[in-house]
Amino acid sequence: MPFKSDHALQLLGRARDNGRLGHAYLITGPKEARHEDFAAKVLDLVVGTPQRTLEGWEGQGAVVLRPQSKSRRITIGDDGDDPGTIRFLEKMIRRTAAPNGWKLGVIVDAERMNVQAQNAFLKTLEEPPPRTLLLLLTTQPEQLLPTIQSRVIEVGLMPPAGARIFTEHENQLLIVLGKHASRGSGTLSGALALKVEFEEILEELHEDLKKKHEDEFERETEHYGKTTDGSWLKQREDQVEAAIEADYIQQRSALMDLLLSWFGDVARQQAGAEHLDLPKHQSLTATLATKWEPAEVAKRVRILRQLESHLHTNVNESLALEVCFIQAFGS
């Protein structure tokens, strides 16, 4: 369950006061939640000597890793003297200390750790020095190894009100939903047309992600290809394929969340709620709120949630979408 930043800090403060503070936290949520600002506030809270920014904490002994070089990866590194790598973090967090004896490590864009780096980081997670606090920041927690996810406490953050920024594909979906609401469509042909438009958005999304990762892989090949053997190339190819699919699943889930937010706003307007997830589209969801009975909206939400669940299995994506859209939009 995601929290507002202030509430999440209150919970962490309570855990500290009760002696239940963990040694490793995974800070997740959309980029608008401003993970780095929140991480600095967590360090301020726990250590008790406010520095206000991660850069300020670096000056006080915290080890902050960020993606490096053209490849924008966080690697395992050759040894402890290789800055910006996991080996460097392992070495420095045992040798340096922040105020009050704390040993602090922050990994920004933690999903950018490659597999070798993640496996190496497990040692620090499992056997941290005393008074260690590790913060992993990411918008894509599913790209971290399950062994890492199981050893950290996740803190999901909500963006501030009005701060949500939609991706290109999310904006396309909102336009499609708006047109559907304006037409007042409740027919089989209208539902199938909407399904086709949704699939077109998914296809474009997949192609964009494929191009992004393949371009990045090409830059990596130019950078590392001459200094590593062929096994690295094959392994990295497999990682790129996996990363494309992981990104696709994550962003497809975000589109499903947007669909649920749309229907959620319909239900909220029927109930007279003040808060809406999509306030700019209030007039369109209000149209549906007057057209449908609350029981109908609840049924449509259940259908979309079932689709969301099915898409995380080996179900045929196109068939699952067709069945769901007919049921959710065809009447």
Description:
With 331 residues, the protein is an alpha/beta fold. The chain folds into two domains: 5-156, P-loop containing nucleotide triphosphate hydrolases (Rossmann fold), CATH 3.40.50.300; 168-329, no CATH class. Helices cover 58% and strands 7% of the residues. The protein has helices at 5-17, 35-47, 54-58, 86-95, 115-126, 146-149, 168-183, 188-224, 230-271, 282-291, 294-310, 317-329; strands at 24-28, 63-65, 103-107, 132-137, 153-156. A five-stranded parallel sheet has the order 2-3-4-1-5, sandwiched between helices. The longest helix is centred in the C-terminal third of the chain and has 42 residues, at 230-271. It is globular. The two termini are 33 Å apart. The mean pLDDT is 88.
